[in-house]
Design a protein that fits this description.
Chains A, B: This is Nitrogen fixation protein FixK. Two copies of one chain form a homodimer. In chain A, 38% of the residues lie in helices and 25% in strands. By secondary structure, the first copy, chain A, is an alpha+beta fold. Chain A has two domains: 146 residues, Jelly Rolls, CATH 2.60.120.10; 78 residues, Winged helix-like DNA-binding domain superfamily/Winged helix DNA-binding domain (Arc Repressor Mutant, subunit A), CATH 1.10.10. The first copy, chain A, binds a DNA duplex (30 and 30 nucleotides) through α6.
Amino acid sequence: MKISGSREGTHWQSCHDCTARGFAICAALNNTELRELAQLSRHVRFESGATVFAQANIATSFFSVHKGILRIYKLLPDSRRQIVSFALPGDFLGLSTLPRHEFSADAIGRVALCQVAKESFATFSENRPRLLCRMMELAGRELARAQEHIVLLGRRSAEEKIASFLIGWRDRLNGIGRDGEILTLPMKRLDIADHLGLTIETVSRTFSKLERGGVIQIFAGGVVLLDAARVESLSAGVS
Amino acid sequence: MKISGSREGTHWQSCHDCTARGFAICAALNNTELRELAQLSRHVRFESGATVFAQANIATSFFSVHKGILRIYKLLPDSRRQIVSFALPGDFLGLSTLPRHEFSADAIGRVALCQVAKESFATFSENRPRLLCRMMELAGRELARAQEHIVLLGRRSAEEKIASFLIGWRDRLNGIGRDGEILTLPMKRLDIADHLGLTIETVSRTFSKLERGGVIQIFAGGVVLLDAARVESLSAGVS
DNA sequence: CGTTGCCTTGAAATGGATCAATTCCGGTGG
DNA sequence: CCACCGGAATTGATCCATTTCAAGGCAACG
């Protein structure tokens, strides 16, 4: 397993004006605590395509995504791949306290992460119920997303999968301040396919079909939701 | 929404010799705390098929499964159903702190649950980091299971799905003390189908195929793993 | 013993996968 | 500025695993 991240500095210079502050775990901390945690953490960067950690390896650190996007995935022995989720700024990697990584994570484009040793973090959080509650909150959200994805994979058609994915992606981008109907899709078609349980060809065909229907417009690196309401109805939303 | 559970007594008489003690959240509590929590909780029972709570309703309570099995599921508007998971004794329902239920839960056979009002529980857990950590642990496990299920739904064939399901079910039963290669499957074929993203016919056919292959033996209400190693290899396990 | 609710089995239909070319596009070098 | 190259995306033509449609079968129960 190659770890190709460059480590720079021992801790993040400016947690105060961190762009991911607010959505990350840090939101539960006051300034003093923030400074303390900063002492324990280091800031790491990874180039596009680099593997941050791999499935089944001993997990020694937690990460909080600061900038960029990662794909979180599992491989079957015969190299089939399932992308469990995409991690965005503010997402916490390693909520599960199990000793080994449950999945692999690699960078889509350049990413910047805050890394904290598991042990230090455990001691730090031990007597900070507010932080623990915040973690429960993130875990709960993560779980809700996973369950929603289970429905998508188990019971939705290809078109519904794509539509749901677009809506979900839009909502997540909104959540971190990137509003609007112009969606950047930094991941490749193959990533989308492996996320939705489809093949690259089906993803491509479905995008084309939606574009022909005037519902979306495809451009290099993304999509415009010309008719967001239509996309939502195609997604066969919850309840 | 019908709540057809009969409420009996204000709290569970004997948390000490509770059969689910040990795997439930309670494992993180000492005797004093256990007694305190018992004051806040009530013991409820539901008949087979009863709905404990439904998706999108306001969530006022947490539940810990004491006896029996529940199906945890979501419905799409057109009534397609996806069973997200089956809840066993020791499982905690409502880890997500969101105000509304993310899914519906109903009893498969008779069940007994410990119910605690969300608010009381929040105050109780607020200054008990050990309990919060225990919840994180359960949440982490739940999340890991959900992610494993995502792989199953996204990238496995019908036969692999069934085999994985049987192995997973065996392991979970082992976890609560029901060892051995004789698996009781209290849920119906339709439940299995809706859990694995298949149709009832495919489930039935695949079971039959495995039986013809001498890998399992079907009996009313369950299955015997005649060749567990074979089932494991058919499941195309992780990594 | 007839009914009712599951489960199983068979035959036909199909959505998405697979196989096989193209086309598109950003980068690179002449 | 243009030609060329390689990776990604698209498109078309089959194929096939699973669904869908349609009968039975079987055990529990009145």
